[in-house]
DNA sequence: GGCTAACGTGAGCCCTGCTCATGTTTCAGG
DNA sequence: CCTGAAACATGAGCAGGGCTCACGTTAGCC
């Protein structure tokens, strides 16, 4: 991570260029040379900030995650939704909104497929996300924040991620029916689990 | 697709080598040069059978799909399981078995992530799989094979795929608790849906 | 045997990820 | 203001990957 001011700007520019390019050419088509060219940063500088191509994409994923958690935390605090389905609504809707508005979010969200352990070196990505989400929601639901609950959140997160990916594969704006189905899956599962 | 005998053998050897290598070096680390070397086939010949690297992996995914559908169809016919949860059991268990025994299955199953439309050019992979699974199960359940049901199968498939991927990320033999959770998700969702 | 189409081959082209030797800038402590 | 060291900047070039293509070999029909 850079500490000086110009470096920090370049760092952000590189992430922005990376996100844009992911939307244009996809994960496999992304080249570090083109990212550097877009950001108007020499290739050597890119490699001063990021260990390698995966590190670059991982940093983008981390930025996405922080942004997502911030937005969800804000809305949960403000709206204090009721019960599981309220939290599911907020979380899914916020994910959908980001998917529609944040460049590259559809390709890497919190970590590109196949490529893991980029957010926390010892955890796989969605586990890291689940951990953060769990501490966010446990207080709201009053649910015991135990091992059972942890598993439930992890499973729910995997399902949500995959069904929403499907929703956006069908329709670039996100197929409404499938977004509704996503919530249905989560509600059915999480409600059944509480017995 | 090759037609002569020696070619057909080489074709299979290439897929086998590809599957092995995927387990060893992962999706990103797979090189066509190494696949060809392993299969003792010149690199030019590989490109006579497969349009490119993705075509090679796509062919492996197609072979996996046929194998999976064959196994599931066999077991469903033989055991005639009761209700939704019976079918879920058989299907998930068969997937888990293949995941444990078929080389490369954990990496590509029916199509590597991010990379789509390799089984059917117009459909995304899991939609193609869902279509095949649907015609397999519709007769058994007596369920109307309608649009509603199609959506349900697609959603269920995405969830199953992602939760099982998680189960095998946690434990190379497949975490038993998460495999159970996978069935739970599917049962909760599919039962709730029938109302 | 002759002929054509299918199959077989691997040196090498082009492009990519990444490095590294060499400079330049920043800034704390004097 | 000076000075030194640490942080930052740079881009030619290397290693290695995907894929091609011009040229050889075989299969199988007449």
Automatic annotation (TrEMBL), chains A, B:
Keywords: DNA-binding, Transcription, Transcription regulation. One of its GO terms (molecular function) is transcription cis-regulatory region binding. Residues 31-50 bind DNA. It comes from the Bacteria. InterPro entries: Homeodomain-like_sf, HTH-type_TetR-like_transc_reg, HTH_TetR, TetR_C_22. Residues 8-68 form the HTH tetR-type domain. Signal peptide: none annotated. This is Transcriptional regulator, TetR family. It comes from Streptomyces atratus. The lineage of its organism: Bacteria, Bacillati, Actinomycetota, Actinomycetes, Kitasatosporales.
């Amino acid at each position: 991570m850079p500490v000086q001011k110009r470096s920090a700007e370049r760092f952000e520019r590189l992430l922005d260029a990376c996100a844009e390019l992911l939307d244009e050419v996809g994960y496999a088509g992304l080249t570090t040379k083109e990212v550097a060219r877009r950001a108007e940063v020499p290739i050597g500088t890119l490699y001063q900030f990021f260990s390698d191509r995966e590190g670059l994409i991982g940093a983008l994923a981390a930025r996405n995650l922080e942004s997502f958690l911030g937005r969800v935390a804000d809305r949960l605090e403000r709206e204090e939704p009721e019960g599981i389905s309220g939290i599911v609504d907020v979380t899914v809707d916020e994910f959908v909104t980001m998917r529609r508005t944040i460049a590259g979010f559809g390709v890497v969200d919190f970590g590109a497929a196949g490529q893991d352990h980029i957010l926390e070196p010892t955890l796989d990505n969605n586990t890291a996300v689940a951990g953060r989400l769990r501490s966010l929601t446990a207080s709201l639901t009053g649910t015991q924040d135990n091992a059972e609950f942890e598993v439930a959140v992890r499973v729910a997160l995997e399902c949500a991620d995959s069904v929403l990916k499907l929703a956006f594969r069908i329709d670039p704006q996100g197929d409404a029916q499938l977004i509704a189905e996503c919530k249905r899956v989560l509600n059915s599962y999480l409600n059944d689990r509480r017995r």
